[in-house]
């Protein structure tokens, strides 16, 4: 039986970490694609040279040629640039939108049957554009953000309660960014919702509010510490969980940016919602009941995503 093939489009900080994790977990053979010559080859070789020590047999190849992603089962997209000082949000959007166009065309031509996981920011707008540029069915194009955001929420909650991260479940909805909606009511320790834990005296509302705020600003906290880049270990781990879930048809219920077609009263938009992720990609979108406050937060998050989509259409009218 042939090994699965994982194509990583973008071999920067997240791309390299993805390659290392995918190889260590033997998810398949790995192709690192990047426009920067030498970087994907160098990272691929460096990781391959660790394989005799760690004992895995994945092959790793670096490339600047889309032909090398041919037949990939999963494509994980991190290609693009990060916002630099002096660059406006629209400048960033313009650059990464063009990157999504070339990536979408490369995937359409060489790996049309892959599950595509987009990580490039601004996430919800980029995954929306990537689906259109690639022409792949919407169930096979998803965005990674919710698993990372909820992992941050879970980690902060586990620290607060001094319990295992495995005992904490957390629920995050909406677009990726400051408007994301961590849903306190649906987040639990061993099935006990956070509001009950407040009543039980395990924590206070003020502490939970502070954790929610820290979760919303989780990406910025890492950027402020690193100073020259953004988070990559946890983002890579999140996307690898998605790839593994697809390849093993695990049907995990996880928050991902998925295309809505009527759910939550919305259409033709990608936003973070719980989905069932399995061999058919996004197999089902879970519509949870939102109370008035949660709905208001979700609506404002959706409005922020719509604003980015409108900016994309202005830059590239073919998306309209
Ligand atoms: P970085 O280390 O800069 O890697 C990006 C790579 O993309 C570089 O190696 C570039 O050479 C390459 N690249 C640029 N243009 C192209 C192209 N046209 N085709 C192929 N490759 C190209 O960044 P990173 O790995 O730290 O982050 C990658 C992206 O993920 C950025 O857009 C981040 O903002 C985003 N990100 C998203 C999250 C989410 O939770 C959604 C978290 C962290 C980072």
TrEMBL record:
Binding site for NAD(+): 10-15, 34, 96, 119-121
Keyword check for Secreted: no
Gene3D superfamilies registered for this protein in UniProt: Lactate dehydrogenase/glycoside hydrolase, family 4, C-terminal (3.90.110.10), NAD(P)-binding Rossmann-like Domain (3.40.50.720)
InterPro entries: L-lactate/malate_DH, Lactate/malate_DH_C, Lactate/malate_DH_N, Lactate_DH/Glyco_Ohase_4_C, Malate_DH_type3, NAD(P)-bd_dom_sf
Active site per database record: 176
Enzyme class: oxidoreductase
Annotated binding of substrate, by residue: 83, 89, 121, 152
Entry GO MF terms: L-malate dehydrogenase (NAD+) activity
Enzyme Commission code(s) on record: 1.1.1.37
Catalytic activity annotation: (S)-malate + NAD(+) = oxaloacetate + NADH + H(+)
UniProt cross-references to SUPFAM superfamilies, sorted A to Z: LDH C-terminal domain-like, NAD(P)-binding Rossmann-fold domains
Record-annotated Lactate/malate dehydrogenase N-terminal domain positions: 5-143
Keywords per UniProt: NAD, Oxidoreductase, Tricarboxylic acid cycle
Sequence ranges assigned to domain Lactate/malate dehydrogenase C-terminal in this UniProt record: 148-309
Family: Belongs to the LDH/MDH superfamily. MDH type 3 family.
Entry-linked HAMAP family: Malate_dehydrog_3
Name of protein: Malate dehydrogenase
């Amino acid at each position: 039986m042939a090994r699965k093939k994982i194509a990583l489009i973008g071999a920067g900080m997240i791309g390299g970490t993805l390659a290392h994790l995918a190889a260590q977990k033997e998810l398949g053979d790995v192709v690192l694609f990047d426009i920067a010559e030498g970087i994907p080859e160098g990272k691929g070789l460096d990781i391959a040279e660790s394989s005799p020590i760690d004992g895995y047999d994945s092959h790793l190849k670096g490339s600047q040629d889309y032909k090398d992603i041919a037949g990939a089962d999963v494509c994980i997209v991190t290609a693009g640039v990060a916002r630099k000082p002096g660059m406006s949000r629209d400048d960033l959007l313009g650059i990464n939108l063009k990157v999504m166009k070339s990536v979408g065309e490369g995937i359409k031509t060489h790996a049309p049957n892959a599950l595509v996981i987009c990580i490039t920011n601004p996430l919800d707008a980029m995954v929306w554009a990537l689906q259109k540029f690639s022409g792949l069915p919407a169930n096979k194009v998803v965005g990674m953000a919710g698993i990372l955001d909820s992992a941050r929420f879970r980690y902060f909650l586990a620290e607060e309660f001094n319990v295992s991260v495995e005992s904490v479940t957390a629920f995050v909805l909406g677009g990726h960014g400051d408007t994301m909606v961590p849903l306190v009511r649906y987040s639990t320790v061993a099935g006990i919702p956070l509001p009950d834990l407040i009543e039980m005296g395990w924590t206070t509302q003020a502490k939970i509010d502070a954790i929610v705020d820290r979760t919303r600003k989780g990406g910025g906290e890492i950027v402020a510490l690193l100073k020259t880049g953004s988070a990559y270990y946890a983002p890579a781990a999140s996307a690898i969980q998605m790839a593994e879930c697809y390849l093993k048809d695990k049907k995990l219920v996880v928050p991902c940016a998925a295309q809505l077609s009527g759910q939550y009263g919305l259409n033709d938009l990608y936003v973070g919602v719980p989905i069932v992720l399995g061999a058919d990609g996004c197999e089902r979108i879970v519509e949870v009941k939102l109370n008035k406050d949660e709905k208001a937060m979700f609506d404002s998050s959706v409005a922020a995503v719509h604003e980015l989509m409108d900016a994309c259409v202005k830059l590239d009218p073919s998306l309209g």
